[in-house]
Write a structure and sequence with these properties.
It is built from 15 helices and 8 strands. It has 320 residues and is α/β, with parallel strands linked by helices. Helix 1 packs across helix 2 and helix 11 packs across helix 12. The structure holds nicotinamide-adenine-dinucleotide. Nicotinamide-adenine-dinucleotide binds next to helix 1 and strand 6.
Length: 320
């Protein structure tokens, strides 16, 4: 895989497609954005412009870079136009095998045989998505985190037939556009980050369901506790610091007994408690009621608050 990536196709124009398009464009790479319907094109155009405007407003992007980015983007409802002549295709269509299979077959009719295809799938298997493909070795998982233009993590996942050269090229490309890719050694459902997130969330649901605390308390405990620390260090390095001179090894040994006691008491279920979505919704509404107005009250304001915090953190991590 030696082809230089000069042009990209971004398939799908939802939350993830528009974030990816923003990311590619802010890094100066000409991008064609494809979606099925004319009305979605206007929506994604607005979303990309809004993302770029926000970065300019916050002082993280020069106005000229934004203007150049807007000259480099092409929006289309024609898949052939989108994938012809590009070296990298980022697929962010709905999470369904049938749909992804149909689109991959169509893409392969028009794309260059050595164009890399990365799928944003959160939970489907790369091996399975690649099944009907003529060149399955070119399909790789490139799983972003929402919002993709701000969160650096990309989980790179190899299907059974993905070639090592494609994994390497995808890795180098994501690094080039400012991401922090992690390559999985094995294909597992949910990859790394979503599994970790779900492990925490299962315990959160369990604590609320058992009446230990409220939905709002869970969010407070995470944001003002481990969440703050995790924004600086991963769980292993955080424990390493917690162990003083003996580091993580000392900490793990010292806490072994109490850790195992806690683990025996923690949630292991795999069926969500009945009625949880309603409980979560009510809890979140109450949490928003109690939220100070300066941290945002509407979904739009809260998203802006999140992105403002993310930008400051990214600056400290030297990732923007
Ligand atoms: N939302 C997240 O937090 C998130 C995070 C990481 C990865 N992902 C993954 O990214 C992918 C897209 O997720 P999303 O949240 O952006 O979805 P979404 O529903 O917001 O967007 C999907 C887009 O595809 C378009 N579309 C629907 N059917 C189509 C078709 N037949 N042909 C062409 N376009 C079609 C829709 O108009 C929409 O623009 C999924 O695979 C998902 O698992 C999502």
């Amino acid at each position: 895989m030696t082809n230089e990536i000069k042009k990209i196709a971004c398939l799908g124009a939802g939350v993830i497609g528009s974030g990816w398009a923003t990311n590619f464009l802010m890094k100066g790479i000409p991008t064609k954005v494809y979606t099925r319907r004319q009305e979605s094109l206007q929506r994604v155009k607005n979303a990309v412009e809004k993302n770029l405007d926000f970065l300019v407003k916050k002082g993280f992007l020069h106005e000229e870079v934004k203007n150049r980015a807007l000259e480099m983007v092409e929006y289309t409802t024609d898949l052939k136009t989108a994938v012809t002549g590009v070296q990298f295709i980022q697929e962010s269509l709905p999470e369904e095998y049938d749909l992804k299979h149909a689109v991959m077959a169509e893409v392969e009719k028009y794309a260059e045989p050595d164009a890399i295809i990365a799928t944003s799938t959160s939970g489907l298997l790369i091996t399975e998505i690649a099944k009907p493909m003529r060149y399955p070795e070119r399909l790789v998982g490139g799983h972003p985190y929402n919002p993709p233009h701000l969160i650096p993590l990309v989980e790179i996942v190899k299907g059974e037939k993905t070639s090592d050269a494609v994994v390497q090229a995808a890795y180098e490309f994501y690094v080039r556009i400012g991401k922090e890719p992690v390559v999985l050694n094995k294909e597992v459902s949910g990859f790394i980050a979503n599994r970790l997130q779900l492990a925490l969330y299962r315990e959160a649901v369990d604590l609320v369901t058992k009446g230990v605390c409220s939905v709002e308390d869970i969010d407070k405990a995470v944001v003002y506790g481990p969440g703050l620390r995790y924004a600086a260090l991963g769980p292993n390095l955080a424990f390493h610091l917690g162990g003083g001179e003996k580091g993580i090894k000392g900490l793990m040994s010292a806490l072994k007994e109490s850790t195992e006691m806690r683990l025996r008491d923690m949630a292991t279920w795999s069926k969500e408690p009945e009625g949880w979505p309603d409980v979560a919704y009510e809890g979140v509404l109450r949490e928003i009621e109690n939220r100070p107005p300066e941290l945002g009250k509407t979904v739009g304001e809260i998203a802006e608050f999140r992105d403002t915090v993310l930008l400051e953190l990214l600056k400290l991590h030297r990732k923007i």
